[in-house]
Amino acid sequence: MNLGLLLRAWRETLWTSLVFAGVLGAVSAIFAYALPRVQARFMQRSFVPPAVREFRDALFGFDSAGAGVSEVAFSIAWSHPVILALLSAHAIVVCTRLPAGEIERGTADVLFALPVSRLKLYASETAAWLGVALLVLGAIPLGSYVGSRFIDPAYRPDWSRLGVVFVNLAFVYAAIGCGSLLAATLTDRRTRAVLAVVIATVFSILINFLYTLDPALAFTKKLAFLSVLDYYRPIRTLMDGTWPVRDLAILGGVVAGFWALAAAHFVRRDLTTT
Amino acid sequence: MPETPREPLDVDLRGLTRRYGVRRGVEAVTLAVPRGSLFGFLGPNGAGKTTVIRVILGFLRPTEGTARAMGLDCWRESHKVKAQVGSIPGDLRLWPWLNGHSALKLFSRIRGVDMVKGGRRLAEQLDLDLGVRVRAMSRGMRQKLGLILALAHDPGLLVLDEPTTALDPLMQDRLREILHARAAAGRTVFFSSHTLSEVEAICQRVAIVRQGRIVADSTLDELKRQAGHDVEIVFRAGAGAAAPPAGLTLSRRSPDRWAGEHRGPLEPLLSFLAGVPVEDVTIRKPDLEQLFRRYYDAPGGEGAGG
Predict the structure, then answer these.
(1) DSSP one-letter code for A48
(2) Which SS3 state, helix, strand or coil, does residue A31 take?
(3) Which of A66, B69, B245, B287 sees the fewest Cβ atoms within 10 Å?
(4) Residue A225's pLDDT is what?
């Protein structure tokens, strides 16, 4: 790793990441404040429409029957499309910079003429990403903590269990980030890399819900294993407190695989900068 | 018998071919740039100059042949090569948030050598305010900063792609002085350009690349010496219908007037002229600009000389 390159990458991603962290923290705080109240009112009703329940379970990836207010509310908060979209967007923005972003804005000629091996360059970029990732990811539990200060203590989450969910969410984020790193090494155009990852991510998330929309799409349930959400089930963790070892192992494998593939391709590829 | 010590080569390309799929890059390029020389790399736009530079800097892997710089393999030991190289790309873009001071500090940190002192000295020579941010700089200022960043660590080899772009004539002179001083101190300058006049003013030796191939590699004096003579003959009484003498290649021909190029000894031409009614004759060496135009324009890469 090269400290100069690390600082350069931080300089270029820090402000964007602070904005993402701020928005994520605020959204997370609002969810932590509002969702337990909404959920409490909702649970007072005896009947939950099957379609709502099916959609919710698809979102959770787990049968939520028997879950309490706090578990359901914080599961929704931590797997809400707004949270997932913001996290995905941050991973994509930061991880498509090298080399596609540098080539597209014309600075690659200067960057790649520096006396640093490509592996070090890639490692420095990854380290810079991990630094800002902690900031962005950390904003979510921080927001939840702040928001939950203003609710009935009975509705507050079990923080140790939420910590496990945090690790699981970080793995999801890392998988999208490493997918972006790979896409950025496969093309010279950042726009293309972004588009490819956005399409893949949206598909990956949608595939988890399609079967709930129309009986004709029931067959897509078999493809749910392609969804990143299939490996992120906060409700289960919040309900039983166990570590989702299988999910983490699969996501970890995806992260390591994408990262290694991207690194291997980056060190071997030609850099045509025009 | 003792071996003759060979001149160290800071750029050594042998049979270098680089293709982009079906698109041509460069074909069988062989170049040897000795240490301490000012080497001009001339060619029209799209001839393959930047491809060669990208191979030297390890951006591109040779399709065939070898590329070595500072005694190291340009692809496998690219980062070691670049530690000894200062370069400026043809289309320089720097990170917009940098200013001159922060750029010198950042590059010092990345390179692991102090570039601040040398950079400040160069900024004075090139008259650049280091406090201005790149996003607020004019094109000429950015070019100066790029040159400072290429020169400040006193590299053994300078690889400059169209470095005078956007520099005013005064700054071009300053750059010329700096490059001559570097070469005098044993540094090598690989100067790529499509403009003959600036290469002529800076370099001792030139290679001309055209359609991806080297069509000339020599000193400027040698290239001039190898070139033929431009010949123009105005005949009387339609005497130009005769066959031209050996060595004369005509580019324009009518019964009254011939124009072309003569190579080889002039005697056959003079004997021919003595035997026909001639109104006017011009025989002259082409100037450098014409010479290079011939290299650039000639079909199949055949130029004016050897």
Answers:
(1) -
(2) helix
(3) A66
(4) 87
Asked if B45 contacts B194 with a C-beta cutoff of 8 angstroms, the reply is: yes
Quote the minimal CA–CA distance from A114 to chain B in Å.
6
Residues of B in contact with A110 (CB under 8 A): 89, 92-95, 146, 149
User: H or E segment at A246?
Assistant: helix A245-268
Alpha-carbon gap, residue B54 to B12, rounded angstroms: 14
Torsion angle, alpha carbons of B272, B274, B277, B278, to 10: 90
Instruction: Please count the residues of chain A.
Output: 274
Measured CA to CA, the distance from residue A74 to residue A78 in angstroms comes to 6
* Residues B158, B151 contacting (CB under 8 angstroms): yes
Q: Which of A105, A106, A114 sits opposite B110 (nearest CB)?
A: A114
Give per-residue pLDDT as tens, B138-173.
Answer: 999 999 999 999 999 999 999 999 999 899 999 999
> What is d(CA A170, CA A184) in angstroms, rounded to the nearest whole number?
21
Whether residue B148 contacts residue B128, with contact meaning beta carbons closer than 8 Å, is answered with yes
State the DSSP H helix or E strand holding residue A10, giving kind and residue range, or none if neither: helix A3-44
Question: Does pTM surpass 0.80?
Answer: yes
What mean pLDDT, rounded, does chain A reach?
A: 90
